[in-house]
Amino acid sequence: MALAANPRAPLESQHFHVVVIGGGINGVAVARECARAGKRVLLIEQNDFASGVTSRSTRIIHGGLRYLEYGEIALVRESLRERERLLRERSHLVHPMHFLLLLNENSRRSAMKVRAGLWLYERLAGKHSHRRAREMELKQLERVLDNGHQWSFFDYEDAQCEFPERLVAEWLTEAMAAGAVVRNHAEVLAVDVAHGRAHGVLVRDQISGRDERVDASWIVNCAGPWADRVCQRSSIRTSKPLLGGVRGSHIVLPRFSGSPNAAVYAEGEDGRPVFVIPWNEQILAGTTEVADSGDPARAVPSADEIAYLVRSVAQLFPKAKISAQSVKHAFAGIRPLPHSSDKNPSAVTRKHILHDHADDGAARMLSAIGGKLTTASALARECAGKIGLRVSESNPVAMGPGRALDPLLDEAVLEIARMGAVSEETARGMLEWHGKRAADIARMALVSAELRAPICPHTSHVIAEVVEAYRRECAITLGDVLLRRVPVALGPCWSESCSREAALRIGAVMGWKEQTMGANLESFETERSAFLRPVGRTDVAFEAAAD
Ligand SMILES: Cc1cc2nc3c(=O)[nH]c(=O)nc-3n(C[C@H](O)[C@H](O)[C@H](O)COP(=O)(O)OP(=O)(O)OC[C@H]3O[C@@H](n4cnc5c(N)ncnc54)[C@H](O)[C@@H]3O)c2cc1C
After folding, report:
1. Separation of 36 CA from ligand 1 center, angstroms?
2. Structural fold of domain 94-161+246-335
3. Which of 179, 453, 480, 504 is most buried, judged by most C-beta within 10 A?
4. What parts of the chain have a pLDDT lower than 70?
């Protein structure tokens, strides 16, 4: 891995009130909450912030309509409350999204059941959906759906966070602003336990290769699907595994003629929900549920899962002629669901659990299990409360754009464009990804043409955003930048030549020597193809067999 050689302050023998293991959305939320409560906090992430399940999700911010089937009313109520909070506080990153739920004569759910569910969902949300442009959307959808079926349509509102990676980056900078010390590319090798209590952690800094021991009053294990591994390597024995890992896969397709602007929620051939969602100028379709107890870092979609998702989308939209060749890439993540004897993974609760390890001989250590993007902030408040910190229910809108910097407002776009001497498109992109910080980035861009240059010829995002990622958002590798802080490499037309061009442009500003550039580029391409799996010829072969 090509890592920047910037020395980081040593941690050896330092004492922190709270050490958080894992920098996914939950760990970053916990670190932010505890730091804001005035405590000394250390956050350790073995790879990069948001590089785990957080970036493998469907990216919906939702109450979980589906959970009503399992009677999880309290969870739905909490998730809806959190959805509203995110829409209010992070309006540049979390947008309302119109959903169309489809049933046909073969669907397992009845129209009556769905209608009752939606009625309850709206009541729990405390508001009615805005049925925007329903007729137009329905007409457009009817044109591309399989007209051999009798379709019933139900619409409702939820929300989407296209880039949870950016949400995590914002919460991270807020945690640091409140005093948290954060380390990515640093792994917790073990939790130190003595006399029935967790005392600290042994950390390996992947950059310096140095091992350091840190003391802690509290340890919060937010390692997501790695949570059991953290316990095992620390010889903390739980009466049963904390997790029952379930792999979920997605495919990414290009938009097709007539593809819906609304998110479509339909049933797959096995009755499981399948989402087909407009995302990042492409279509994201998922998911699957396959038991997987392997290393979460190696989770990849199987050929069967890809075939199932391709069939599901192709059956819904036969006129779009979708096949395995249409798939741009596929990716998978392990849902860190609580361990359960229930054979049906859909039935396992999505409610998070804070496991207290006092009975496992490791008092003052908590493990966060399960949860969702949507409820990470609620999990963090609950966690801070458990360790005796005073938490405030109301969050200041610290990083979200204030009225004057709302990306939906043309004046804000014009103001940023003028400040940075950049195009309106670039200014809008800056506002959408960086909220209020867009103003600082625009000021930086004004300094030179190199900083105002696009990262690659196909994007309007500029090099100044990359410099911000390295300077203020703890990016270390090129993957940290292009996949998570300024995630242009998730875009529809990114290719190897874009990677090369981006590395050249970034390297020129960052002063990389040729060797550093080559190493950065190579490790980036390795990471990109391990995450966004190209669907090759072998995967195409299954399709004929599956028909
Ligand atoms: C297929 C799928 C679809 C989903 N869709 C949605 C959705 O639409 N909406 C929604 O709200 N939720 C969704 N979720 C759930 C959501 O993604 C997860 O609940 C959430 O991302 C979990 O975050 P986390 O921080 O617990 O885990 P992670 O993001 O995995 O973070 C854990 C981190 O711990 C680090 N780590 C592990 N071991 C160590 C160690 N020893 N030292 C240091 N660091 C370590 C890892 O590198 C990792 O970055 C989905 C999940 C999946 C799998």
Report:
1. 23
2. D-Amino Acid Oxidase; Chain A, domain 2 (3.30.9)
3. 480
4. 1-6, 128-134, 343, 394-408, 536-547
